Amino acid sequence: MRVVCLQHVPFEGPGVFAKALAKRGVRLEYSLVPKDGLPKDAGDLLIVMGGPMSVNDSDKWIAEETAFIRSALLAGKPMIGVCLGSQFMARALGATVRPGRALEIGMTPVRLTDTGKQDPVFGACPESFAVFEWHGE
Q: In sequence order, which ranges of 1-137 are alpha helices (DSSP H)?
């Protein structure tokens, strides 16, 4: 299995995903998109990380990454989006991404749905757990 990780800033990498994949002997390739450009393909699994920018910014690489993600999603590639990564996925599928009424910063409870409990990634998580969030869009 080959996993591709799109990073947007050097200090927001795949962290726990990288550790879990390494334990399983899975190859993880990184691309710091604003600097290095996009990889040749999305691999077997695409992880799209966060960053301080917005999918609404006018940088050329943002439009290119959105198209890359759209193509991977339409091809049925499994994908994980973290923060900005989930914004990219939403935008790639035609959603509007806009500022919220207020910043959301802090710990938030998450409860798995029945579908989540069967998911190959989230199924290994407890039924409920807390996650940290920090975003304005």
A: 15-23, 33-36, 60-74, 84-92, 114-118
